[in-house]
């Protein structure tokens, strides 16, 4: 696992890409909630221009929702290897022993008592299924990755093909 970004020197093929955006209905809910808070601030601080709390809370809402949806799941193939990227972390496919889908019904068990504390977990509550990637790397103490994704079968196909 490394913190460096994709190597832009070598030609690469993106085999799978998914952005873990928040659900669409969070946007109007966030704007309504923050609009109410901005209205309360406007009522309490009459010395401020009336539009200022709304502009500030609008910017906070947009920034927060974009930040929550910042994680991207990628399977990238270069001329010499294929890698799984989740956010800033990446993993060569050569160290993957096996991978499987964790359906939404088994998600609480996978994240509960069965979870190894050394596992690498990228969980987004608004994304139903997950992918379990078991590692076979003697240099890495991480036993497996548990990753939220909306289309686990596509991730598994991109890792295997």
Automatic annotation (TrEMBL):
Claim: Transmembrane is one of the keywords in the record: yes
InterPro entries tied to this protein: DUF3093
Parts of the chain that traverse the membrane: 20-39, 51-69
Keywords: Membrane, Transmembrane, Transmembrane helix
Pfam entry (one): DUF3093
Keyword Membrane among UniProt keywords: yes
Name assigned to this protein: DUF3093 domain-containing protein
Top-level taxonomy: Bacteria, Bacillati, Actinomycetota, Actinomycetes, Mycobacteriales
């Amino acid at each position: 696992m490394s913190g460096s970004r994709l190597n832009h020197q070598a030609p690469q093929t993106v085999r799978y890409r998914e952005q873990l955006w928040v659900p669409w209905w969070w946007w109007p809910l966030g704007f309504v909630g923050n609009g109410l808070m901005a209205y309360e601030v406007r009522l309490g601080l009459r010395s401020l221009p009336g539009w200022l709390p709304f502009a500030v809370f609008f910017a906070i809402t947009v920034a927060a929702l974009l930040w929550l949806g910042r994680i991207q799941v990628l399977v990238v193939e270069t001329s010499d290897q294929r890698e799984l990227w989740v956010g800033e972390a990446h993993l060569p496919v050569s160290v993957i022993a096996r991978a499987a889908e964790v359906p939404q019904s088994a998600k609480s068990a996978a994240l509960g008592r069965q979870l190894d504390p050394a596992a690498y977990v990228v969980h987004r509550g608004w994304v139903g299924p997950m992918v379990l990637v078991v590692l076979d790397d003697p240099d890495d103490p991480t036993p497996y990755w548990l990753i939220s994704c909306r289309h686990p079968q596509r991730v598994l196909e991109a890792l295997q093909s």
